[in-house]
Structure formats: C-alpha cells, structure tokens
Amino acid sequence: MSLPHVLLGMLAEPASGYDLKQRFEQSVRYFWYAELSQIYPALAKLEKQGLLRSKQAPSDKGPSKKIYTRTGKGKRALQEWLSDGPVLRTERLAYLTQLFFLDEIPNARRIEFMQELRDDFAQRLEELKLIERNWASEDARFPDNLPDGELVKHMTLRSGLMKYAMMVEWCEECLGRLESRQESTGHRNSRNRKVS
Amino acid sequence: MSLPHVLLGMLAEPASGYDLKQRFEQSVRYFWYAELSQIYPALAKLEKQGLLRSKQAPSDKGPSKKIYTRTGKGKRALQEWLSDGPVLRTERLAYLTQLFFLDEIPNARRIEFMQELRDDFAQRLEELKLIERNWASEDARFPDNLPDGELVKHMTLRSGLMKYAMMVEWCEECLGRLESRQESTGHRNSRNRKVS
DNA sequence: CGGCTCATGTAACACGTTACATGATTCC
DNA sequence: GGAATCATGTAACGTGTTACATGAGCCG
To answer: What mean pLDDT is predicted for residues B102-126?
Structure first.
C-alpha cells in the first residue's frame, strides 16, 4: 500500500535502487524500512506502470547503475496519495503487544525487558539529537526560515525527538513501578543503564 | 513473526477465533490489528504445531464455536518470545513518510493533512481517557495496587495516553508553522477543529 | 420471509523477509 | 589473490488484505 509511494517520494531526485536503500537508511529509517530485495521489484513494477523511467549510467565505483527518474504521471500519483489524507491506524507495535502480556514472565525479566526498551529509545533519541545539532550548525535558516521541503523534514524530525524523549520518561516510570514490586519480594535490582 | 504470539497471549483465557477478534478490537487495537481471515488460519496452524488445542462448544447465539485452549507448549512459546526481549525497529508509520514528502502538495493541502492527523490523535486520546476513567471508577486498586496482569495493561494504556497527548501538541505546533506561511501569501485559514 | 449478527472458513493477491546467485571494482 | 563494497536481481516462504462462500439462529 505504501512502499511504491515512498519510492516516488524519494525519487524527487533520480537515483538507483542501491542509492535509494542508502537514502532509506539515512532519512526515513525511524519510521520506514525496506530491503533491497523489496525495492528492486517495486521499482521495476513502477516503471512498467509508467510512473518511473530508467536509464543505465556508469558508477563511480563498481558496476553500472540503473538510474530511475520520476515521470509526470509518477509525480501526480504521489500527490494523489498525499492529498487523500494521512494513512492512519495501520501501525503495528510489536513491543507494546509484548508488554501487554508481560505478566506471563517473572518480574525480574519484566524489568530487563523495560530496560532494553528504554536503552533503545534513549539511543534513538541521541541519534536524532545529533542530526538536529549538525543541521543547526550547517544551515543558518534553521529552524525558522527553512524552505518548504526542509520544513516538513524538520517537522518529522521533531516528532521523533519528542516521541523518544517521552518514551524514555515513560520507561523510567514503568521501571519504577516494576522495581517497587521486586523490592517487596526481597530482591534488589540495579537501575543502571546497560552499555551496548 | 508476531500474530501467532499475540494470539497465544490473548488465549490466557480460552476463546474462539470470533471471540479473539472482539478482544483485539477492545484491547490491543491501538497497536495491533488483525482480520478474521488472518486469525482463523493462524489458529489452525498453531493447533497443528501443538501450541493450542480446540473443542467444539455450543454458542449463546448462532452456530457452534471452536474454542481454543493454550497448551503448556503454547505457554512456553509465548514466554520465550517475551524473554527474547522487545521486538524493535519494525515500525512502519505511513503518515510520517507522507509528512516527509508533504512539500509536494500546496500549503493549503498540507494544513488540511495536519488537521486530519490532529483530529485523529485527539479522538484516540479521548477514547483512551474514557477507558482510564471507567477503569478508575470500577476498580479500587487502580492505579497503584493493581495485580501484575493489570499493571502491565495499565502501563500499555499510559503509553498511549502520553503518546497521543504529545502528538496532538506536536500537530498544533506544526499547524502554527504551516499557517504562518499561509498568511504571508495572503490567504487566511481557520484553525477550527473539524467535527467528524 | 428478509435482514442482522454470529460463526467459520477459502482464494487470490499484495507486501515483506531471508537466503541465495552473480559479477564488477577497489583496497590491502 | 582475497576481502570488502558496489550493484542488481531471483526464489521460497511467511504475513496481511480484500473478496467471496456458507450457513445457523434471532428479531421484526
């Protein structure tokens, strides 16, 4: 339902499948993920539908690339997807369903689970903070005078910063509740952050 | 990777496929969704693997049901999934990828998009607040003296309450930034909440 | 009797993951 | 020459969605 549209969005600038995979990793990896083996056939299909055009081009390093360009029809398909409004309530958050059933394992394990969650969110938060710091130092227009294309990217980044900061706090709150039960059964559990 | 485990979790109490669908809608719909046509074959497969057992039972209304019960092996499989730690970085948030490319449509449309987002998050927040209010009024142990099974459910609920409250705020912030651009091009746009 | 909810499924298709296959170029 | 990276794909399998099929029991 969405990968083809994400590819159309990423192809505002022409790129090969391999390039697109890198772009995924650098930009949208916090809310979208795709394998190369998924990207290649998706691009081929979009070309067959006339939403993309491709040409062979030599590479700086390695074998020649197949560079895809968005057609007018491709751009309109993307705009239509965006104009249809947000795609909502399709999220699947496996870690929350796990938490929902976490009473099926012993409390000490529950605490380990929440620590792992907290550490991962904290790490993502640091990664995003770094991106924001670099951006701020490299672009004088940051954050209030950005052009439209950068503004929406910054809004996306802000949502990640706010979300992960909140999730870390929430994990701490949960750990407090779990640990108070641990203590009452005679055990004691360090609250130290795991190093990864 | 996960639906079978979610079903095992939901089957702490025996139920039919149809019952489970109802349970999905009442409890985990905010972070997991499944169609009946996905649930039935998944249950059959779990039974074939010996993680569930089934028996026919009459229904209050309508035809007879196939009631599934978790086996010891099924419970261990669930505990193993939970003990392996949180399943992370598998999220796919379509609305954030849309936002990321939102500069491809006119600013007026961008504002409509964010209003729709905000309204949906606000609605989810109200739904969760209602659940919390009802719970608080029906259970004297709420929220600090809940048994383990309810504690993890409450932690899950809290994450939703905190998340959607934050997302509504974030949407308002984004709308402010988008509308300030709208005004500077001579248009004016009401900030009123849409009624659904 | 007709329409609703209850109840269980199948079929066709789309989407996503893991493993495998192939070969060019670059760096050590 | 061997390992790493660049580059494009296919195959098999698992997961998820939409549409369709079937029939029991209940309410008006």
So the answer is: 98
